[in-house]
Specification:
binds zinc ion; 4 helices; Metallo-beta-lactamase, Chain A; three-stranded parallel sheet
Length: 177
């Protein structure tokens, strides 16, 4: 757990925990945050976490004060204005976050990509990025691919391979990802 003042005790001067998307490296420790601290997350992302909690090692957010992101809609956390932007990522319901306070603007990209079903979001974002950013925090999970993983050039071909293998299988299909 990072040593963030008020994170475990909910002292009141920590105004919220902001989650971009439900991948484990972004939410894995959130259940250790004090239950009084508001958590910002997408509505579908939160449902995914709560439904997965009984099966996987994922935190459960039921019963906590939640703010559900709506792309482009500002939410206030104490003195911080937070504007989420829906992005294209392998996790459903993923957001970049623009955080403003005291005249300064921080932009956190979250994880994103430009080749999935929502690539139009990426193209639009490149064409019209937030302006006058003071601090940019950018995530990068896959810079490139090695030759061995290039057998599926896009999402559609991967889906077709899943369908083909599941139709060929007898009985229950299980996927390990
Ligand atoms: Zn991710």
């Amino acid at each position: 757990m990072p040593p963030v003042a008020g994170l475990r005790c909910g002292s009141g001067d920590l105004f919220g925990v902001l989650i971009s998307h439900p991948h484990k490296d972004h939410v894995g420790l959130v259940e250790y945050a004090h239950p009084s601290i508001p958590i910002g997350i997408g509505s579908a992302a939160r449902q995914i976490l709560d439904r997965a909690a009984g099966w996987l090692d994922r935190p459960r957010l039921e019963g906590r004060p939640l703010v559900h992101w709506q792309s482009g809609v500002v939410t206030q956390f104490g003195p911080f204005r937070v504007t989420p932007y829906l992005v294209d990522h392998s996790a459903y319901d993923a957001y970049a976050l623009l955080i403003e306070a005291d005249g300064a603007r921080l932009f956190y990209s979250g994880d994103f990509r430009g080749h999935g079903r929502k690539r139009a979001l990426f193209d639009r974002f490149v064409a019209e990025p937030p302006r006058k950013i003071d601090v940019l925090l950018m995530e990068g999970t896959v810079i490139g691919r090695d030759g061995a993983s290039d057998s599926f050039p896009n999402e559609a071909s991967l889906e077709e391979a899943f369908v083909e293998r599941m139709q060929r299988a007898e009985g229950l299909s299980l996927a390990w990802t």
